[in-house]
Amino acid sequence: MTEPVIRSLLDTDLYKYTMMQAVLHQHPAAPVEYRFRCRTPGIDFSCCLDEIEAEIDHLCRLRLDEDELDYLAGLDYIKPDFIHFLRLFRLDRRFIELGCEQGRLELHIKGPWLHTILFEVPLLAIICEVYCRRHYPSPDWHQARERLRHKIALAAAAPASFRFSDFGTRRRFSRRWQEEVVARLGQQLPVQFAGTSNLDLARRLGLRPVGTMAHEFLQAFQALGPRLIDSQKAALEAWVHEYRGRLGYALTDVVGMDAFLRDFDLYFAKLFDGLRQDSGDPMIWTEKALAHYRRMKIDPRGKTLVYSDSLTMARALEIHHRFQNDCAMAFGIGTHLTNDVTDPVPLNIVIKMTACNGQPVAKLSDSPGKAMCEDAGYLAYLAQVFQVRLAGADVAG
C-alpha cells in the first residue's frame, strides 16, 4: 500500500463527532446499519477492492493521540466524558462487510451506532482516493490549480458578506489535494473563507471547524422517537438538550422541506440559529424558509441559511446575490473544490443509514433520486405519514 489515505481519526467531518457525542449521552446502545451506493453509472471497482481492504485495515488501527484529544477538548461544545470515551476508542473492522459483485462495490456497516458513526466519511474518502489513484495516476495538476485560481478570484470579487467553507472530505481526489486547496483558500481568502468541516485540517491549519448534524441523526429518530410523525421534533429536541443553544443549524430535507416546516414551529425557530439546505431547488427552498420565519414574526435577517447541495462557486454566488438582503447566508462547497481535478465527473458516492433499532429508516429528500431506503414498503409509509410525494427513490433490497 502507498501512503495511507487516512492518517488520523480527525480526518473526518466535525458533525460526525458532534452527533457521536449526542449518541453517547442519549442512545449508546442503539444498533444501526449503513449501506454504500455509487450513483455514478458504469463504475467498476473490481481493481480497487484489495487496496480498499488494506486501507480499511489501517483505518481500524488508528487512535486519537493526546494532541488531537486536547484539540477536541478545546471546542467549547465537546464534553469531558466524551473525551474520556474517545481516549479508548478505535473503529472495529468486524462491523464492516465488504465485497464486489460484477464490479459493483458492496459495503455494509452494522453495529452499535456509537461505534460505527465514524466510519462513513473516511470510508468514502478511501474509496474515492483509491479509485482516483487507479484511474487517474497522472492528473494535470497545472489545470487543477488554474481551476482553483479561478474559483478564488470569483470569491475574492464577491461582497464582504459572502462566506463559504470546505465540505469536501468525503469525495476528494486525494488527502494531499484537499489540504492544498484548503491551505490556499485560508491564505488567499481570509474574509470569505470561513473554515472547513475537516477536523484534522482545521487543527493543523489553524482554521475554524464547521458543522452541526447530518441526515442520519434525524433518520435514527424514526426508530428511536415516540411516534414516526413526531420523529423530527424528537431529534431536534434531543439536539437542543445536548448542545443548549450551540451548533444551532437544523437540516431540513430528511422528509422534505414542507414536512420539516410543519414541525419547525415558533419554539424551534427561536431556538435554532438557522437552517441547512441539502437538496431541491435552493431558490424555492429559501423563499419557503423566509416566508416561514416571517409568518412567525421572526426577522430572517437575524437567521443564517446554510447551503450545501452540490454547490459550485458560481452557484453559491448566484444564491448570495439574490438573497443577501433577506438573511445571513453561508455555503458549504465540497466536490467542486476538492475533486475538480480531472475532466470526467467525480464519483457520486454515498453511505447512508438504512436501519436503526432493528427497523428501517430513510430520507426522502427534496431531489428526485436522493432518497435512499432498503424497504420500499417503509419508504411509502414514511411518505404517507408525512404527507409528501415519493418520486425517484433509491430502493435496494
UniProtKB/TrEMBL annotation:
PTMs per UniProt: Transiently phosphorylated on a His residue during the reaction cycle. Phosphorylation strongly increases the affinity for substrates and increases the rate of nicotinate D-ribonucleotide production. Dephosphorylation regenerates the low-affinity form of the enzyme, leading to product release.
GO biological process, one term: NAD+ biosynthetic process via the salvage pathway
Family statement: Belongs to the NAPRTase family.
Protein name listed in UniProt: Nicotinate phosphoribosyltransferase
EC number(s) on file: 6.3.4.21
Enzymatic class: ligase
GO cellular component annotations of the record: cytosol
NCBIfam families from the UniProt entry: NAPRTase, PRK05321.1
Domain Nicotinate/nicotinamide phosphoribosyltransferase: 162-388
Pathway membership, UniProt: Cofactor biosynthesis; NAD(+) biosynthesis; nicotinate D-ribonucleotide from nicotinate: step 1/1
PANTHER family attached to this UniProt entry: NICOTINATE PHOSPHORIBOSYLTRANSFERASE
Top-rank taxon: Bacteria
Modified residues (Phosphohistidine): 215
Keywords: Glycosyltransferase, Ligase, Phosphoprotein, Pyridine nucleotide biosynthesis, Transferase
Biological function: Catalyzes the synthesis of beta-nicotinate D-ribonucleotide from nicotinate and 5-phospho-D-ribose 1-phosphate at the expense of ATP.
Record organism: Zobellella denitrificans
Gene Ontology terms, MF aspect: glycosyltransferase activity; nicotinate phosphoribosyltransferase activity
Ranges of residues in domain Nicotinate phosphoribosyltransferase N-terminal: 10-127
Gene of this entry: pncB
Catalytic activity reported: 5-phospho-alpha-D-ribose 1-diphosphate + nicotinate + ATP + H2O = nicotinate beta-D-ribonucleotide + ADP + phosphate + diphosphate
